[in-house]
Write a structure and sequence with these properties.
This protein has eight helices and nine strands. The protein has 207 residues and is α/β, with parallel strands linked by helices. Helix 2 runs parallel beside helix 3, helix 6 packs across helix 7 and helix 6 crosses helix 8. The chain is elongated, with a radius of gyration of 18 Å. The structure holds calcium ion (CA).
Amino acid sequence: MRILLIEDEIGLIEALKTLLKQENYAVDTATDGISGLDSALTGIYDIIILDIMLPNKNGFEVLAEIRKQNIKTPVLLLTAKTELEDKIMGLDQGADDYLTKPFHSGELLARIRAILRRKKEVRSDRLVVGDLVLRQDTRELFCKDNSVKLAQKEFLLLETLMINDKQILTKEQLFEKVWGFDNESEYNNVEVYVSFVRKKLISSIPV
Ligand code: CA
């Protein structure tokens, strides 16, 4: 799962990045409304965490533009304000949920899971396809009683494949989901990691 975090408070960005990565989410960040909107419009994210008070374009403007461009990615608004009016405005504009700062990290994670469940891309604690079970908390792949541990990128790749098990995914889609846009990774990493995952799949099969 890939999360876009649009937030201008550096301390909070660092804390949330650490928290979300611990939970095995891939995280990209933007620190102002305009660059955040650019990233959001790529449509590759599973969830967008959007602060309201942002430089250049505020969260409401970003949200309105995302929905206008028909991007359906779920949005969780972060607000420092407690006014009921803001929350109603946010939800009316197409936010899926909101959280008032300061919040407890456990609550943020629970809201994210709830949004993803509603989206039916179940991020409970395990994904099941046939005999294969992928555990999100430990990055372990099980086949019956046998198990094998996956590295982070291997996990993201297999997770993407298992969520979309009825679909054919392009190399571009896999690259965007696993590596995002924020880095200088080689495009042919996709082939390399597909071969790693294939080996893990084979070693997960009980002999
Ligand atoms: Ca802010």
